[in-house]
Prior knowledge:
Largest sheet: 4 strands, mixed
Radius of gyration: 13 Å
Helix content: 25-40%
Low-confidence stretches: none
Strand order of the largest sheet: 3-2-1-4
Order of helices and strands: HEEEHEH
Distance between the termini: 28 Å
Strand content: 15-25%
Amino acid sequence: MNTAFRAKRTRAKIHGTAERPRLSVHISNMHITAQLIDDDNSKTLAYATTVGSKLTGSKAEKAAAIGKEIAAKAKKANIKTVVFDRGAKLYAGRMSALADAARKEGLEF
Length: 109
C-alpha cells in the first residue's frame, strides 16, 4: 500500500483547531519535523525540526529532543492539548519517543 493513502486515511479523521491544533510529525531517514497546525485558518502555530540543528545522539534521542522543543513552544503559545497526527508512520520507535517526550513536558493528547 502506498504511504500517501495511509497518510490520507489518518488525516481524514483528524482536524486541528486554534484551541486544539494538530501536532503533525514527519520523520525522514535523516531529519524529524513537528508542527502545530490550525486547520481552520491553515496556519502553522509552532515548528521544531532537526534540520540545521547541532543535535547529537541516536535518531530516537533526536526525536525526543524535538518533542521537548515543540512542547515548550506550545506552552509558550498557551496550547495545552493537541491532536496527534502521525501521518503514514506507525506509532513506534522515533514516533513514540517524540510523543512521550512531549507528554512529559506537559502536552496532552
